[in-house]
Structures are given as C-alpha cells and as structure tokens.
Amino acid sequence: MPPFAGSNTSSNGVHRHDSNSNSNIVTIDVGGQIFQTTKQTLSLAGSKSFFSKISNSDNNGSMIPFIDRDPELFSILLSLLRTGNLPSKAKSFNIQDLIFESQFYGIENLLVNSQSNPSQFDAFNLEKSSLLPLNGRDSPTSISTTPYGSLHIAHGSKVTSFDWSLQRKSTILTQFTAIDSLFALSPSIAAAGATDFSGLQILDLEKGFVKETLNWENVTKSGSTVQAIGASPDHLFTSFESSRRNSNCIMVYDLNDSLRPVTKIGHYEIYGADLDSAIPSTKLQWVSSHNLLMASGSHSGPSGVLGNIKFWDIRSGNVVYELKEKADCFADVTASNVLGGMFKVGVNTGEIFFADLRNMDSDSNSWICLGDGRKVANGKKEGFGCKIESHGNQVFCSKAGNLELWSEVAMNRAERDESDSSERVFKKNLMGRAKDMGGSRITNFHFGGSKMFITRKDQQCVEVWSSVRGF
C-alpha cells in the first residue's frame, strides 16, 4: 500500500491528488485561514483527539470543516503533528498558549513529548537555566519528579507543584509540620510522609486533599512514621518505623489495585542491643535489571557510622544479598540499572566507590574506590551530607555546593575482561559553567524529562538545569 493512499507521489516527494476522487487530502478552515494536510498526519494525533473526528468525517468534498481557533497556533501544532517537533517560529509564542491550544485539540501529549522527553537529557550539556521561587520562608526538604518533568517540592508543611512546562504552579497545605519523604505517583498525585508524623498520606495535589492514609502497626499497636518511599512500575514501597522506635518494616502496596497492601518485608522487632535490627531503611530504590528492591539505612553510634544495604526479592520476601557497612560507611548509595552496579559516597573520606552487581554473591568486600584510594579518614566526615544518584548511564554526586558527574570510559572489548570489575574505568567531571559552581550546600537533586532540579540549604527556590534550549 502506498504511503498516501488516494494520492500520487512524484519522485520529488510532492503528493498530487484528484480533487474529484476520495482524496487523502484533508482541507480545514481555521479562523478563516485554509490548511491542507493528509489523513495520515491527522491520525498521528490519536483516536481520541479533535483531529481524529475531522479525519474520520466523510464530507465528500461538499463542506470544509471550520474551526473557530487561532490559525497561527494551529499552524504550529500542525507542524508538530507532521514532524514530531515544534518549528523554530514557535519560540515567538508563549508556551502557555501552545499548551492551552494543544489541550483543545487533544494533543498535549505530543507537545510534552517534543519539549520534555527524557531521551533529550544530555548530562554533559546541562546548564543552570532558571530558578523556581517558592512561597514562604521554608527551604525545600524533599523533591520528586515524574518521567516527563512535572515537579513536586515539599517545603515546611506545604507542597508546591509545577507542571511539565514549569509554567503552572500550585501549592497546598498539608497536616505535616515538615515533610521528609515525597514521591510523585503522577503529575497530580504524590505520597508524602514524615519522621515525626504517623502514616503515609496520598495527596491529591490538584484538588488539595488527602485521598488516603496508609498505616502500619507493630505488635504494640503504636503508630508508625515514614522513613523512605520508593516504587516499581507495579508497587509502592514504604519504610515504616514505629513511633516508639522499637520496630520497623517495609510495606508493599499494589499501584494497580487502589494501593492494596500486598506484603510486608524486613519486619524487625528490636530487642536489647541488636543494632542491625534498629536501623530502618532510609532509602528505597527499585533495581529493575534484577527485579530486586534495594533498601539501605545507616546509624551513627559510639563506634562510628554503621549501615547495611539489602536487596529484597519482594515475591519471596527474602534477602538475596546483604552488605554490612563499617569502615567508611555510605553517606548515600544508589544503584544503576544501565551500568549494572552500586555506587556510594563514603561518609568518612567523601570518595566515590563502585560495586559490580554481577558479583553480589561474592563474600569479599566488592567496593572499588573510583577516586584517590590513598585518601584516609581524618575524622572530619568529608562525605557527610553528600548525595549520590544514578540517571541513565551517568552517576551524579553532590559535594557541598558542587555536583560531580561520573561516567564510564568507553574501552575496546578486546582490552577488557567483562568478568573483572576492576577493569572498568570511571572518570569525573564537574557540572555546569564556572558561574554555576559553588553556592550553598546541595540538599536534593532529581531528574525529570530533559531537566535536573536542585535544592540548596537555606534557599527558598529550586534550580532548573537543562540541556535543551526551549521557551
């Protein structure tokens, strides 16, 4: 079947059609201006869009559909349908006007895909592009994003949300004194919890109310506070600690079945001086490459900082692999599905370490220092407050007010032993332009769409770092 049924295509790509036949060409009158396109182009808008109704209508050439809308904006969106990208002349329009118009035609998803697609993220070209101011005097305590760049920020008892374009802003007041954990379930729904307030609240950020509160009770029936939140495509994970701090567990909820409790894992009742059991999970990360949940937590005591990292099989409820941290325990830890490894920043040395997930069954300590392995702890806790996160095939680590970008060096396969982790080479780059460097200590950073979002200590705003020059 030819690409444009009902039309004749010449060698130069021009489509010729017979106006008296059942033509593939569709003529539309928008605000008094005539446009012509093909049914195939209109079909790209989707079956539920306004364009689908026009494409499927059968007027036999007797009537040209009239749409009482702005023809200039229509021209921009028609170009979006044809190419998947906005034309350069779109920069002369307000993005909010394009959003409203795309919503009318039912193609906002195409606009989002062209302007805030995760595939457009380029770590090496990230630059600070703007600041998002927050209402009030409270600094952000937690941030969360959706894959296409919607942003939720917890500051004080409030949650402020920005849509994917960062143009629409809304703020709601919650019951919390301060929110310590925030997780975006959608552009309008988030899970929130605190270490001093019982229960996990599911918030409708658009309508401003609590949809549901999820609780866990131990044998003493005391309340429980939230230590961490994470998710897989199918499940929501929440780390709870009892209000009396004598037990903890991780609850698993079904995201596809109204947050029905599925199971609980890692339930520990603390007796005596069992320090390992007393450490609740303060970070939860789904490792899709292994279908495992990574749960990590640390504790500062007389002998220094101790911690553990556990990989849970949520189907069996068993720990597949556990790593106990004593010497230079992690200040933060992350797993990378793409790179197939764990990365930590040592709380004492501030160095970055790597462990290959393929060697999880090994009994030996598998951490490999990516920095200066000769650096020793000097009692200053160089890594305190540092954050580390993986995104795509990159690893980002905050050091005071700066960000480090760690990337694996491409090597010839013939020169590399795939089974030997020590053969893998990672190099560090500093993020941003010279004028973007430094500043107050970075407290959080997250990724959404083609952007990175950063918060800093005592700053009532969010930094937006982008690798795509948009509106």
Characteristic terms for this protein:
4-stranded antiparallel beta sheet, 471 residues, mainly beta
Please explain how this structure is put together:
With 471 residues, the chain is mainly beta. The chain has five helices and 33 strands. It has helices at 39-43, 50-56, 71-83, 95-105, 108-115, and strands at 7-9, 15-17, 25-30, 33-38, 66-67, 127-133, 140-145, 151-155, 158-162, 169-173, 181-184, 189-194, 197-204, 209-214, 224-231, 235-242, 247-254, 260-269, 283-287, 292-301, 304-313, 318-325, 330-336, 341-346, 352-356, 368-369, 388-391, 394-399, 402-408, 426-430, 442-448, 451-456, 461-466. Strand 19 (283-287) and strand 20 form a beta hairpin. Helix 3 packs across helix 4 and helix 4 packs across helix 5. The protein is globular, with a radius of gyration of 26 Å. The chain starts with 6 loop residues before the first strand and ends in a 5-residue tail after the last strand. Residues 1-21 have low confidence and may be disordered.
The parts where pLDDT drops under 50 for at least 5 residues are 1-21
User: Which class of secondary structure composition applies to the elements?
Assistant: mainly beta
The portion of residues assigned to helices is under 10%
Largest sheet descriptor: 4 strands, antiparallel
